[in-house]
Write the structure tokens for this entry.
Amino acid sequence: MITAERVRELLDYNPATGEFTWLKRTGRQGAGKPAATAKRLGYPVMGIDSKVYMASRIAWLWMTGSFPVRFIDHANGDPGDTRWTNLREATDQQNNRNKARQANNTSGFKGVSHQAGRWRARIVQDRKPISLGMYETPEEAHAAYCNAAATLFGEFARFE
């Protein structure tokens, strides 16, 4: 497994921009060139010593000296944003709480679905769905979801 010393020998990381550049020529990559150019599902990755790493995990290693024990969550929800202020260690559940509304959501609001002519608000805590009630408008249902998410999820709550 790669070490922080090896990463710092090969790469420079700018915590303010989240960008990595090569310090040394490695293979076809020249010194001063961007290191994280490829993306996997929106996440920048880079090849180091014949192994592919996610840039967010390398940023954590570069900044702290060790790999994260758990997941790395992007606070703003943008997997391409590897600025240090946007990265935080998270459990699987915390990471899932910060996900955006699902692509197949037809209400337009996270935590809201249409049912029997009304709008249902629902949230999931510890893998268990919690009904937050039925409402006349999707906006009312979404407000109930947002209140519950803020209370249950704190800094990991995501409302859109």
Notes: Residues 9 and 130 are 49 Å apart (CA to CA).
